[in-house]
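Data availability excerpt. The first of two example chains:
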Amino acid sequence: MNIFDGISYYSYSSFIQLLEKLVADGAYTGNVTGNDFIFWTKLSLQRFERWAKTIQLSDAAIAASKNAAPQTWWVVTESWCGDAAQTVPVLVKMAEASGGNIELRFILRDQNPLIMDKYLTNGTRSIPVVVAISNATGEELFHWGPRPAIAQAMMMNWKKDNNGKTFLDIEREIHTWYANDKGVTFEAEILALMNK
């Protein structure tokens, strides 16, 4: 038994279909409010689609994926999560490269508070969170989130002293970093966790 047993989830394709429907309907997931979340959901879908076409795995990531013991990677997110749109495509490529050894499943943060509260970041429900569970034992192999260490440091430094920058300013800086990094740092962090 693990915390994810019996939880309903989205596959990657059904999660993308959910995003497409939300964008078409001008809607979003979660318990947050504001029209910005409609915009961010649309932007997340665009990022998912762009990275799906352009992300390239390293040979090391392909090998680690193929050699992984059967496991399930649970992604806790919401439709509007920009950090998920920048990182999850790497997980998708790794699951594809694994030949079925890695299954990717998506759940929504606000529909699963008991799970989310087990993986808080500095006491907050920051997303995305990735939790790898062994298919053989049901034990947690690793968890990661909510951003690569460099991007997380940028956000934490801004929270300590925003230096006159707005939230949109720091978001723009972080997403520029993601665009330039092309998933390399995130891939390295996942590989390090897999190889522990």
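And the second chain:
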Amino acid sequence: MRIVSLCPSLTELVFALGIGRELVACTKFCVHPARGVQKLKKVGGTKDPNLEAIQALRPDIVLMNDEENRREDYQELTEQGLNCYSTMPRTISETASMVRSIAAVLGRAEVGEELAVEIERRSVRVAEAAKDRDPVKFAYLIWMKPWMSVNKDTFAHALLSHAGGVNVFSGREERYPEVSLEELMEASPELILLCTEPFPFQSGHVVDLSVELGLPMDRILVADGELLSWHGARTPDGIDYADSLIRGLLGGAPSAE
């Protein structure tokens, strides 16, 4: 099978399913696994793929994501006769279902089932543990100038709330709402998470935000955006990572134990 992946997390998933050798191309943003994608042909970005190059590769399937990729690119590729398979999981259970469906399409149902079961196993364990703890109010910031957060219709929200977190901006209408620092202070989160993607937040931003808000630095953390937003192969670790953030095991977060 000849596979083209236009979503970084799906590229990683193909390798996790043991068929990385069947990938013929991916995007320039597909960076995991590093050695696996190094020699793959790059066909542009997630929002601006080279459709002619993809067509020339004559893939059996093109893996896409409803959010990462553009609808018009999906339509054009399908009109060219290519088999495009696009998914959009927003929750842990939807991610397990996505893994099963993609694995089945790629002829790796047994391996996909193992990964899906592991996702579900960790999900149950974390949810059970969260029942015995006080909830932790958090704000998850993905951009600055303007500051932007996430609402309840996002995968990061799903992971963190599953672990006992309460997203202070969950009720916003926009999936990625702009928020002011005044609104952030009024929401009174116990924990502020600065996500490493799409904006590359670093430790220096923690210091700056701490000074600007007048909050102690131990209430602000840089959070691994790949673990909290890449659904698929790293979701099991993402579930545990979200749990550690909410429980205060990674430094900075308030602990309910």
